[in-house]
Amino acid sequence: MALKTRPEDLALLGGTPAFAEPVHVGRPNIGDRRRLHERLDRILDSRWLSNDGPFLEEFERRLAALLGVEHCVAVCNATVGLELALRALDAAGEVILPSFTFVATAHAAQWLGLRPVFCDVDPRTHTLDPRCAERLITPRTTAIVGVHLWGNPCAPAALEALAARRGLRLLFDAAHAFGCAHGGRMIGGFGDAEVFSFHATKFVNTFEGGAIATRSAETAARLRLLRNFGFSGYDRVECLGINGKLSEIAAAMGLTSLESMAEIVAHNRRIADAYRREAAGLAGLEFPDWPREEAHNFQYVIAEVDETRFGLSRDALVRVLHAENVLARRYFYPGCHRLEPYRTLDPEAGRRLPVTERLCERVLALPTGTAVSAQDVAVIGSILRAAAAGAAALRRRGA
Predict the structure, then answer these.
(1) Which of 84, 187, 203, 298 is the most exposed place for a label (fewest CB within 10 A)?
(2) pLDDT in tens, 150-179
């Protein structure tokens, strides 16, 4: 692992790759292995592996307390969480949501037979633009799904006002926003419900899992029915449901992750600040800011690449980084509206999504998490500077 001091040091220009092993975006954080092993032993000794065991109940209580909500329902993953929440909220017909998001946001609606209507995003926050959302409301619209992208709150007050004024349900995909706050309130208590992801790549994880937070006792009760086949007792089924339960082993990992949360967030913040220092002065490489006065998880380090000013396109810079074993990623390329089945169902969607289209060509996610060190960031910073300095030579090489 060596700094790149000249463009000729870059792997694409004949140099040796900076990293012998790949550096990833979001390698899993493990937490205290001893505490996890203790919990796993208790699970195995009790032989209570699933079906609302003591670790699951403790995990839900801890989540609700941290988020400042009355109810939190843990589920097997966030995609199922979105589906359960949409079902519990009686969404039907059309659902307005951004295209600039992970495809699961749209898939959850489409899977239920709803029609995702793609809305453009704010160029500063990258989250759903409430003004664009209002223009898309029709008599068939029943719900809006906002996404708190990169931990940035998705205009909660404006969307809550819009939903109330137009009689719509409001759901937030909060997969990126666990541990984040808005206006002094933790993300989790806005809208009718908010869905979190605890996938392995999230800074707090349950191996695979998610949770739905809500202030409504009625919604929470319905979610608990829906996630367990509609069972309300040993042999009584009240409604159509599926198996969306979180296992005891997953809940044990979640509790262990929560105990390391402050340490992980502090590390993430140091890494995010280090990237900004390394990229200071690089024209055309811009890091969207976060609300400094609010709690934030710093889970993602996101940059926008302006090809005209930087000298290379985002995709060319990705090729440079990959050659160095820095596995930076294009988020969320090419946009949900350009993926199936949506590009067939709504082939003209791109015409109403100019900000989304631009971001899909510019956004770059850089490696972070506890597996990434400050020294790693220094080397990645040197690659970025060498790439900018050697942009012309890289273009000639076809980068």
Answers:
(1) 298
(2) 999 999 999 999 999 999 999 999 999 999
